[in-house]
Amino acid sequence: MDRRSETISKISAKLTNSNPILTPLSDIVTFSDLFCGIGGFHYAANQLGLKCVFACDVDQACREQYKHNFGIEPASDIKLVRAEDVPDHDVLFAGFPCQPFSIIGDRKGLNDRRGTLYHEILRIVNVKKPKALVLENVRQFATNSNGRALNAVLVSLCDLGYSCQWKVLNALDFGLPQKRERVIMVGLRRPGVMELFEWPKPLQDYKPLADLLEKNPARKHFASERIQKKRLSRHTPKTSPAIWHENKGGNVSSYPFSCALRANASHNYLLVDGKRRLTPREQLRLQGFPESFEVIGSDSQIRKQVGNAVPIPMIKSVVEGVLSAHSQIKRRNRVTSTLSSRRVHERDSSVHL
Ligand SMILES: C[S@@+](CC[C@H](N)C(=O)[O-])C[C@H]1O[C@@H](n2cnc3c(N)ncnc32)[C@H](O)[C@@H]1O
To answer: Higher-confidence residue: 298 or 334?
Structure first.
């Protein structure tokens, strides 16, 4: 091994011994939370030590919930936010409204006015130029209008100087007993970082449903005798506890995990053992919200809010990948600059000799 390679490997070994994610080498510190909802992105980023500098959501109940739990008052309609008024930040998060792209929506996609809310994201990105972006939408976003919606987002981010990747991830692969597939888009601005970014690897297992079901749910969560009987007449479960799922055609199936929680669908379509609806706390657990999250507002409000939220462990794993890529590029740059200054030092010493 020549002297240069030896020095690089010594320095790299020393640096690798530090935590690759929370190392001070990562200069990703702050984030903005657009379309913040009740803060799924916020929790994921907080758990990695990042600090929120701005949030916004048009829905008042979400803003109240967010303020109650994070002590931050989100701004309202993003269309009224001046990009210049958003504080500088390192990562921009946005789970932009999915109604126009969702299977329970009308699939108008780009023709739907709400589908253009991503233009508001671009407007802020253009001015604030965060180092990284993590965007989220429903799985169908990837196929909507033959991929035109996804393509439009990625092309415009490339035009703004970001290298982009996207992938469909499933909450089931991140330890949660919920089948929830989402398109995640990652954009990185610093040259060379995307080459170091890795998507998280799926975990082998998810939490048993029994671990997150409440022991004595209130009576109000139970379906009527009529609904319970109707379900039982259509389905014989293989396992318990299980979440029974009734699809649009009236077919009932059951699994040791929940199908995706939704914001606006009838709350009777998912029943624990065919008998009762999930409680707000169980719904929050299915999305990975911590027990410390305090619920304010009605059951129907929280059901809508949780149905819109991002699965926290899934986003956390993606953000870990973003932080790790930034740490690696900084480490690499530091090794290079250490070597250059060492060369200067050696040259100076030889002058003195
Ligand atoms: C898919 S949800 C995002 C949920 C969030 N990621 C979470 O974990 O809770 C989309 C959010 O966008 C908000 N929204 C819709 N139109 C908006 C607008 N014009 N300005 C700001 N927020 C808006 C909705 O109220 C909703 O909470």
So the answer is: 298
